[in-house]
Amino acid sequence: MSRPGQVLVAAVERERRQVLVDLVALTKPRVVVMVLVTTLVGYHAGLTGPADWVRVVHLVLGTLLAAAGTLALNQYLEREVDGLMERTRTRPLPDGRLQPLEALLFGATLALAGVAYLAAFVTLGSAAVTGVIAALYLFAYTPLKVRTPLCTIVGAVPGALPPVAGWVAGREDVGVGAWVLFGIMFLWQLPHTLAIARLYRDDYARAGVRVLPVLDGEDGRSTERQIVGACAALLAVSLLPTLIGLAGPVYFVGALVLGIGLLALGARQAVAPSGATARRLMFASLLYLPALLALLALDKVRG
Q1: What residues does each domain of the chain span?
Q2: What is the pTM of this model?
Q3: Which among 94, 102, 124, 139 is placed 20 to 30 Å from 112, CA to CA?
Q4: CA–CA separation, 163 and 159 (whole Å)
Q5: Alpha carbon distance 234, 301 (integer Å)
Q6: For the segment 111-170, what is each residue's pLDDT rounded down to a tens digit?
Q7: Do 162 and 31 meet the contact criterion of CB atoms below 8 Å apart?
């Protein structure tokens, strides 16, 4: 092959690799991992006998496809807003590395394939919950972000449903335990997302995203009240798995310690709000959730 031909082939290969990297970035891999983890914890918590490992593999694959597709479609819908914010303007769509139609077809294919896969190989219930997650995330939460600060509460609903989908896959019903897991995930998202919104308030304001800290102004009184209230509610709800017989005393003690720690950081943010305290709260919430879920998985009461 001639030298110019080699250069052309190398350029095409580089472009293909970049497209692949951008398509993966479109799916927000870190969020997908969190969805998978919370789904599997829900499955494990709902089990009344030994795990069906074939079903677990199918659950992972279907959830992976559905979550990746939903998040890609979210980036498609938010491409103009993302282009206005410093923290998101280099994403593949606002930066022009992918075309909107490519993202739309890619995301829709993955999301539909994921829901169909779950229906075929796991349970119709888990597929239905996953479909509800995608619909709420794309058609309720996403458009509300530029309309009302209630978007945070609305968005916490699809964010809290993955463990319910896992529970249904493991137990084929929706019991009290599933709703306790939903409550934990729902309440955890409030201080987490409000801390992020407080950190990037100016960026959100520039893009017209109407999260509470943008409308709350510099003093942030409503934001801080919601953070403290959510942390306190999360502390109480996080103890319920032991009280309903889903987890043991080790989990109870761990959840109590973790909850008090997160509440203390939330209270500190309320008393002396700043970028530093909001950042600490955000990182603490990122550590809190996997620690709590690990305790639940390890100290689950069988039967």
Answers
A1: 10-174, 175-303
A2: 0.92
A3: 94
A4: 9
A5: 21
A6: 999 999 999 999 999 999 999 999 999 999 999 999 999 999 999 999 999 999 999 999
A7: no
The CATH number corresponding to 175-303 among 1.20.120, 2.60.40, 2.40.10, 3.30.450 equals 1.20.120
Would you say 211 and 198 are in contact if contact means Cβ atoms under 8 Å apart? no
Q: Which two tokens stand for residue 287?
A: 């550590």
Instruction: For residue 83, give Cα distances in angstroms to 96, 106, 203, 257, 266.
Output: 10, 20, 11, 41, 31
| Count of beta carbons in the 10 Å neighbourhood of residue 21 | 12
Taking a C-beta distance cutoff of 8 angstroms, is the pair 169, 122 a contact? yes
Two structure tokens written together for 166:
């896992």
Tokens coding 98: 């992918």
User: 290: which 2 tokens?
Assistant: 């996997």
To the question of domain 10-174 being in CATH 3.40.640.10, the answer is: no
Tell me if 136 sits within 8 A of 162, measured CB to CB.
no
Q: How far is CA 196 from the centre of its chain?
A: 13
